[in-house]
Fold this protein.
Amino acid sequence: MTQNETGPQTKTGGLGRMVGKVALVLGAGSSGHDEPGARWSNGAAAAALYAREGAQVVAVDLVAQAAEATRALIARDGGEAIACAADVTRSADIAAAVARTLATYDRIDVLHNNVGVTIMGGPLELSEEAWQRGLDLNLTGAFLACKHVLPVMLAQGKGAIVNISSAAAVTINEYPYASYYAAKAGLNHFTRAMALQYAARGIRVNAVMPGIMDTPLIYQQIAGQYADVAAMVHARDARSPTGKMGDAWDVAYAALFLASDEAKYVNGVCLAVDGGLTCL
């Protein structure tokens, strides 16, 4: 497993908090997360943790190989999962992923919306297409997933939706990613609105707001803002009130709680997982 993993290695080590549940995880891939020393993405860690706790998992990613890698890892550790490729910005792709989930497992108890992309630039730097792409990836994808999954949950009379937002929804940092700020703030309010709209029908909707995290995304999308990777890691560690970045397992355990029946009376919450960053 990985050097920075504090999460599970096998399903048998879980407490059974997701037994009997089917979890559809969008954005479940992570480049190289099964290699020694590699970092896990938030989505891959959540998928693995849901499986460890007994869920049947549908691992969805834009890259088929990444989804398959997560599925294989879950299977290797004793869990059950299938892999599916889909672009969350395409309604037809989401509909197909939902249909495959139902054909395989006959229900969806948890929808985990994990896709998030940072596109650097403000109004002067971003093209209109790049702005729209940022909104689509970080917000519209969650809308489309809810559009296709909510009818299933309504028919079941219950379900839990977990949206992975960001501390950037409520704070401003040194990065000039206007579309990311706007989309994640929108995702928070979308979460609260859906939570109230469907609360009386057995569906809970919550969000997790990761803070300064050590995941593959920062090396792929943020490292260019610094002189080198070491400078980025030092600066990000220094910004955290704890003096250290969090990791994907911190986010995954928060999502697990919100998705589980332990959180049956938790609804409309945007939970910061940030070492206290949003208290500043």
Remarks:
- Residues 128-156 form the longest helix (29 residues).
- The domain at 15-272 is CATH 3.40.50.720 (Rossmann fold).
